[in-house]
Amino acid sequence: MTVSGRRLSLLAAVVMAVAAGSAGVTTAQAAAAPACRVDYKITNQWGTGFGADVTVTNLGDAVTGWTLGWTMAPGQGITQAWNATVTAAGSAVTATGLSYNSAVASGASVTFGFNGTHTGSNPVPASFTFNGTVCGGPAGTPSPTGGTVSPTPGTPSPTPCTGPSTPPASPSAPAGRVKIWMAGDSTMANASACPVGWGSQFAPYFTSDVTVQNSAVGGRSIQTWLYEGNVTGTKNAAGECIVSPTTYSSRWTAMLDATNGMRAGDYLFIQFGINDGDSACPRHVGAARYQQLLGMMAQAAKARGAKPIFVTPVAAITCSGSTAVGNRGFLAETRSAATANGVPLIDLHQRSVALYNSLKLCPNNGDYSAGAVGAFFCNDHTHFETAGARQIAALIAAALREQGIALASYLR
């Protein structure tokens, strides 16, 4: 080869090397741009089982379908999931969106949860892929009150917390602000420790355009909630507890307030029927009286432009062999009142029983302090741990979507 030929060959090699180096830099820069941020929290851990919540934020272009992938540690497995289809093939896990949450706008988030098993340690995943693109970063420290996976370096880490994460609002949320008012008993009431009502876990399912005023109170029937302190221990000839004076409680008065109470576009969720079946006053409420009071509340909300929604009482966990079965009264009465007053009905009783069966909470040994049933319920068969309350709230959110209730347009 001539000197001139050698120079040309050497020049070509240099050009190829520079091009390859440039391509490597470009590839590295592209890989450094995350497609998502993941917040993975271990919400409960017991024996060889655990529950986790996963929130993924789409940092790329809008998608109409999504798949999140990660690798489990040896000894980990998936048993049940909600708000996503989660499957495992060996150590590889994939979670795919459902019909109501498969579309994720740029900057929006979607949350799902699952129960799993583990032997020995239970580490959080080291990284994730979102529709095949790597995102996420080094794992945090798992604990019964939450472990996190940090985002790709350069983005702020999400703050661990014991409740559900609050992702950014969807840019597709409708205009206007809405307030959700809630009236119910302990299974709906706010609390930071067991028992935790599902109403306390409801707000994170909505965009920032929605606020929740949860006025549920433990131990109340619909009548003692409405007439706090004025329901006597004496029954009248019809067998109903005498109310005297017929002055509303401060909580109902606040909802009726012309300035700060319910207004057009708001929603009123009403869930009673658990304490109402008490045979003794003051909690006792008969079937006809129960329906009358539900109707009165619905009409008062409508008169102010608010939209009432009736909710059947959430089920406790009662097993017939390996099957969870219904155990609440006032179901037919709630349905009848909904029909009579033209009010949407969410059958939370039926939905909660179906959830218990999907999670295989039956049979159990009655020990509500351990295992999967202990992670869902307090040390009784009725009230919820935070993780259980969060899943009950998810049932209400799903019902809003499935039943075409307009409030669903504000869901994340």
Write structural notes for this entry.
By secondary structure, the chain is α+β, with helices and mostly antiparallel strands. It has two domains: 36-135, Immunoglobulin-like (Sandwich), CATH 2.60.40.290; 178-410, 3-Layer(aba) Sandwich (Rossmann fold), CATH 3.40.50. The protein is 25% helix and 23% strand. It has eight helices and 18 strands. The chain has helices at residues 3-32, 222-226, 250-256, 287-303, 331-341, 348-358, 371-376, 386-402; strands spanning 36-46, 49-58, 67-71, 77-82, 85-89, 92-96, 109-117, 128-130, 133-135, 178-184, 210-214, 231-235, 241-243, 267-271, 307-311, 318-320, 323-325, 345-346. The strands form five sheets. Strands 5-6-3-8-9 form a five-stranded antiparallel beta sheet, with no helix packed on it. The protein is globular and about 70 Å long.
Q: How are the elements arranged and paired?
A:
Blueprint: H1 3-32, E1 36-46, E2 49-58, E3 67-71, E4 77-82, E5 85-89, E6 92-96, E7 109-117, E8 128-130, E9 133-135, E10 178-184, E11 210-214, H2 222-226, E12 231-235, E13 241-243, H3 250-256, E14 267-271, H4 287-303, E15 307-311, E16 318-320, E17 323-325, H5 331-341, E18 345-346, H6 348-358, H7 371-376, H8 386-402
Parallel strand pairs: 10-11, 10-14, 14-15, 15-18
Antiparallel strand pairs: 1-2, 2-7, 3-6, 3-8, 4-7, 5-6, 8-9, 12-13, 16-17
Q: Pairing-aware structural class of the strands and helices?
A: alpha+beta
What name goes with the CATH superfamily of the largest domain? SGNH hydrolase
CATH fold label of the largest domain: Rossmann fold
Biggest sheet, open or closed, and with what strands and sense?
Answer: 5 strands, antiparallel
Overall pLDDT level? 83
Order of helices and strands: HEEEEEEEEEEEHEEHEHEEEHEHHH
Provide the CATH top-level class of the largest domain. Alpha Beta
Radius of gyration: 26 Å
What is the strand tally? 18
- Beta fraction: 15-25%
Span of the ends, CA to CA: 69 Å
**pLDDT under 50 segments (min length 5)?**
2-33, 137-174
Query: If helices are DSSP runs of H or I spanning 4 or more residues, what is the number of helices?
Result: 8
Task: Please give the share of residues in helix.
Answer: 25-40%
How many discrete domains?
2
CATH architecture of the largest domain: 3-Layer(aba) Sandwich
Gross morphology: globular
The strand line-up of the biggest sheet is 5-6-3-8-9
